[in-house]
């Protein structure tokens, strides 16, 4: 744990300006009872999006979904999986992002090219977003559902925390293309901050609006904690370019936001783009089909071809391998 202070202050070390991509940096602002994580994705998200050559609006949306999944999945204290999945009637009818704790990320999108627009909110349409946590075969599975009504992923994340976790939470997501000596590359970044006071009285979250309120009755809004109002206002000042700027380190970004209160950072966690598909896994999947179903999969070249939706790897199998 390191407290970030300006130069000349008596602390363990100064703010680092070394920008490290594909890292999650946990932080805490103790005077505001705030804890969170900031993530910056570079080569990992560029690899994931580059494997598919998505249209730019789809790539940005999938990049946001990947960042959100990393922000949530990096909090897992066990080697499990967090999956984010959307299904909707929008032009992007499906997003799937897998985060295998502690550090493996993969993702893909399905979309209707003829219906694509420029607005991220419109791309999702109406449907649902599901967050699923798998803790292994011997543990129960947890799933949270958020109704999608055309809102973006930031709004959907806020809705998830209000109704499922009931933890005051602020989320910021950003995705952009940048020009580097190696060419144009995708970058993504995000920040998640949560109000987690130690006082039991301050932990009580406002109830969700009741569904049976008599018509005309106004339900007063509960007063938010002053510390959370301040924290939420600071997070709202983050500009998109600050989350993807390769010259702005995560520590410097946190210092910009919370230097007046003092911010502590913890050990970072690296993130890797990694698909766990393999010839053996796909072969076992094909064995689960009947001989008639496998016969229908045979192409003009007399082989069965399978493309992984996550990494676009193509593999061919001889039908006789399954005799």
Tally of DSSP β-strands = 16
Low-confidence stretches: 7-11
CATH superfamily of the largest domain: Hsp33 domain
CATH topology group of the largest domain: Hsp33 domain
Largest sheet: 8 strands, mixed
Distance between the termini: 58 Å
Question: What is the C-level CATH assignment of the largest domain?
Answer: Alpha Beta
Strand content: 25-35%
Quaternary structure annotation = single chain
Determine the fraction of residues in helical runs and give it as a percent range. 25-40%
Give the CATH architecture of the largest domain.
3-Layer(bab) Sandwich
Q: What count of helical segments does DSSP give?
A: 10
Give me the Rg, rounded.
22 Å
List the helices and strands and how they pair.
Blueprint: E1 2-5, E2 13-14, E3 23-29, E4 34-41, H1 43-50, H2 56-73, E5 81-88, E6 94-100, E7 104-110, H3 120-124, E8 126-134, E9 142-149, H4 153-165, E10 169-180, E11 183-195, H5 200-203, H6 226-235, H7 240-244, H8 250-258, E12 263-265, E13 269-270, E14 272-273, H9 279-287, H10 291-296, E15 304-307, E16 314-317
Describe the fold and architecture.
This protein is of the alpha+beta class and 323 residues long. It folds into 2 domains: 2-200 and 229-273, Hsp33 domain, CATH 3.55.30; 279-322, HSP33 redox switch-like (CBS domain Like). It has helices spanning 43-50, 56-73, 120-124, 153-165, 200-203, 226-235, 240-244, 250-258, 279-287, 291-296; strands spanning 2-5, 13-14, 23-29, 34-41, 81-88, 94-100, 104-110, 126-134, 142-149, 169-180, 183-195, 263-265, 269-270, 272-273, 304-307, 314-317. Strands 1, 2, 3, 4, 10, 11, 12 and 13 form an 8-stranded mixed sheet that branches. The longest helix is centred in the first third of the chain and has 18 residues, at 56-73.
